[in-house]
Amino acid sequence: MTTLMAILIGTFYAAAIYMMLRRSVVKLVIGLILLSNAANLLIFTVAGMDRGIPPLIPKGELLIEGPAADPLAQAVILTSIVIGFGVLAFAVVLIHRACEVVQTDDMNEMKGTD
Amino acid sequence: MDLEVLVALPIIIPLLLGALSLTVLSNHSAQRWLGAIGTALLLLCSVWLLLHTREVGIQVLEVGSWPAPFGIVLVSDMLGAIMVVLASITGFATALYSLKTVRKRFERFGYYPLLHLLLAGVNGAFLTGDIFNLYVWFEVLLVASFALLILGGERAQMEGAIKYVTLNLLSSALFLTAIGLTYGLVGTLNMADIAVKMASLEDQKMVTVIASLFLIAFAIKAAAFPLFFWLPASYHTPQVAVSAIFAGLLTKVGVYALYRVFTLIFTADTGFTHEILLWIAIFTMLTGVLGAAAQFEVRRILSFHIISQIGYMILGLALFTPLALIGGVFYIMHHIIVKANLFLVAGLMYRLGGSFELKKLGGLYRNHPGLAVLFLIPALSLAGVPPLSGFFAKFILIKAGVEASAWWAVGVALLVGLLTLFSMIKIWNEAFWKASPEPNPAVPAPTRNALLYWTIGLLAAMTVCIGLFAQPIYQMAEMAAAQLLNPAGYIEAVLGGTTP
Hints:
Chain B: Its main location: membrane. Chain B: InterPro entries: CPA3_Na-H_Antiporter_D, NADH_UbQ_OxRdtase, ND/Mrp_TM. Chain B: It comes from Alkalimonas amylolytica. The complex is a heterodimer. By secondary structure, chain A is mainly α. Chain A has helices spanning 2-20, 25-46, 71-102. Chain A has one domain: Helix Hairpins (Orthogonal Bundle), CATH 1.10.287. Chain A has 3 helices and no strands. In chain A, helix 1 (2-20) runs antiparallel to helix 2 (25-46). A two-stranded antiparallel ribbon of chain B has the order 1-2. Chain B is mainly alpha-helical. Chain B has a domain at 269-487. The interface between A and B is large, with 35 and 40 residues.
């Protein structure tokens, strides 16, 4: 399963970079979306893929007995999903405005400030 | 004991101010007062924090009283505290400058709340002791900077913003990837704890891979060679006050992050990582200054000079000797004030001369000799002319380079200093010294510039003071460098149990 996830994550990163190198700004944003998802999946995978062992402390105990899934990694992913969502929402609005102002969606035409 | 909360104040104050000024969004004068007085208050608190840290040692606040490796900690060591003070100085100067330069239209779009949020993000990044928390603060300051960058919505701003947003998001994703791999490797996010566990790993190859990922992520944020292209494409597009605070602070957050992780966590394989840093530093200095030589727009020249100056700061980290780190910290202190000030001067040149283009400017010395003097102080300091602050910064770094026998770095640093002087003289000759290209009646005689002069004068006075009273500043840099070179103190302060 971990191998499969590794291949999937690698594909995500590759696809993201490929999309970001395209000239269309829409594809650029799709690349950014894929990139943030790739990073989230990576954290999900490296923290260990445990199934069916929720990190719940039994009633009356102070500690979990035996192995349990890692809740911190999931908190981290949740945070970065929220952040990624907010930032990408901004990026979408930005390219919308930019297309309106510059009258093109071609990155090659946006060289006025270089 | 109660003073621990001091560590959180530089984050809480701007967050509260931001929220407060959002509630009075339509009341312009209230927003301005909140901006000016609030940042002044922030400055006072940061200076207090710095003095306290210098007196007592590294300050640690366990947020929510969760003990160290599990909860999030805020840590104020000398480097962090110095950076917070510099951020507050820049924030204060920008807020003062904004009073007269930011239009009401932008205030209605939330200029002041965004400014406070940016300062909160920057201070949070300087003070956190948790690597994921660092990522969060990076995003906070990025979102605020995105919005500030496009206030106004002109074509150039949009084009610049797309590059700025894309490359910064790419860098954030790489940063997050590196955090994920780190967590997979050592199972902790607390930086001190990561440092302990990384050092005890048998297989150091993976550590070096992660170090490279962090290096790329922070090098993009710091605009180091060859990842700097977003900076000259975007920094000259927004409002002058926004440009000034970006130029002063944002790339330096990347530099700070490099200093933090490459002194605390990744010190096992310095032969590899710091060698790469050295070459990055050399090429950053060189490309930045050569790029500036080709430009004829004041803000673009200054933007390229940010890049070349970043090279000096990374050089201090790359040499990794006590003197080099002192030089690096000193350089950051000198640079933030000077660079923000130069952008503010550029804004005033625009107000008085009607343009940012050197070809259209002229005669400013004859008409506004005061501004000429105020330009010369930061400009000559940037080039490293004694007795201003830049001289000592460059001198310490170059001396460290000579002691470490890094001859290429020393040679390039000297050459870049010379070329910086050339750039500054170019601005001087074109904008101040030569006669006005044509009598320009279109520029109305501007009034009410006194506050702008005072702001610039304040920062210029700081530059002069850092030069004239270099000894106490040097001592603070020395303390910061000593703490960086001996991470055991930082680790013990964070992990050594709760403070009694």
